[in-house]
């Protein structure tokens, strides 16, 4: 993969996930990284191979930016999942915050809806296999 391909894929992977100023800063960093490594005698393909897949680099950058912005660099907060799908946050002082998109699953209405879904699934199972 050439420098232009790597940078292009990285820009695409970062689009709408970071502020424009942060994307510009990261792109400049990786362009300079390519320049420094090629000065040392590596080809663009070798530099790109050492960096890994642009999508994986982007995911790491987005996670690092989120941690930097929230100020949670200690072990008090844990994150998992993607913001658009199923994701959760654990804080020692507040416990779990589980969400499906912006819908909070561990709330009274989330629990009510989950109970209804389980009841409907049980009823369907009973109707189909009796």
Key attributes of the depicted protein:
2 domains, single chain, alpha+beta, four-stranded antiparallel β-sheet
Write up what this structure looks like.
The chain is an alpha+beta fold and 130 residues long. It has two domains: 1-73; 74-130, no CATH class. The protein is 61% helix and 15% strand. The chain contains five helices and four strands; from the N terminus they run ααααββββα. The protein has a four-stranded antiparallel β-sheet with strand order 1-2-3-4, with no helix packed on it. α1 runs antiparallel to α2. The chain starts with a helix and ends with a helix. The mean pLDDT is 85.
Write the layout of secondary structure elements.
Layout: H1 3-14, H2 20-39, H3 44-51, H4 54-70, E1 77-81, E2 86-91, E3 95-100, E4 103-104, H5 108-129
Antiparallel strand pairs: 1-2, 2-3, 3-4
Helix pairs in contact: 1-2, 1-4
How many separate domains make up the residues?
Answer: 2
- Low-confidence stretches at least 5 residues in length (pLDDT < 50)? none
Total of helices: 5
Helix fraction? 55-70%
Rg calc: 22 Å
Write out the strand line-up for the largest beta sheet, numbering strands in chain order. Answer: 1-2-3-4
Bin the strand percentage.
5-15%
Overall pLDDT level: 85
Order of helices and strands: HHHHEEEEH
> What's the shape?
elongated
| End-to-end Cα distance | 58 Å
Structural class category: alpha+beta
Number of strands: 4
Oligomer: single chain
């Amino acid at each position: 993969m050439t420098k232009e391909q790597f940078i292009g894929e990285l820009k695409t992977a970062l689009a709408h996930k970071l502020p424009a100023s942060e994307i510009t800063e990261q792109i400049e960093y990786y362009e300079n990284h390519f320049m420094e490594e090629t000065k040392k005698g590596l080809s663009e393909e070798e530099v790109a191979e050492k960096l890994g897949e642009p999508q994986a680099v982007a995911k790491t950058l987005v996670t690092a930016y989120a941690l930097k912005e929230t100020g949670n660099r200690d072990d008090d907060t844990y994150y998992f999942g993607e913001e658009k799908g199923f994701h959760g946050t654990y804080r020692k002082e507040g416990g779990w915050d589980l969400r499906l998109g912006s819908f909070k699953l561990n709330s009274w209405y989330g629990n009510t809806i989950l109970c209804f879904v389980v009841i409907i699934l049980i009823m369907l199972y009973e109707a189909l296999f009796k």
